[in-house]
Amino acid sequence: MAHYAFLDENNVVVEVITGKNENDLTDGVTNWEEWYGNFRGKRCLRTSYNTRGGQHILGGTPFRYNYAVIGGYYDEAKDGFVWPKPYPSWVLDEGTLTWIPPKQRPDDGLGYIWSEENVDWILFDPWAA
User: Fold this and answer.
1) Residue 28, domain extent
2) Cα pseudo-dihedral 106, 66, 85, 96, rounded to 10
3) Structural domains of the chain, count
4) What are the tens digits of pLDDT across the range 26-61?
């Protein structure tokens, strides 16, 4: 089972679907990106559910850097998908097409959330009122 992303005129992902595997020759179709794109009247590109930051999480071959998500965009030059920017202070890592915070998250086993107001990680306390 393969996944496909539909793009608007600005290369923003507007829909992601599950579709035919690229090697499925149903009804003589040999290019599912083209077929789905023509069917929907939008540009369509295959995306890999198991690719994150340019790495295949199951050890396979990474494809287009990241799984496409609605609101993200397709970087034509890198041939990869970029997720929506989570915070204004974060910057894009051009090597992985992932967003990087200006400060590394503490690695002490505790739960943290990003505070854009403080431009820092703050300890998450689910019991705080």
Assistant:
1) 2-84
2) 60
3) 1
4) 888 989 999 999 999 999 999 999 999 999 999 999
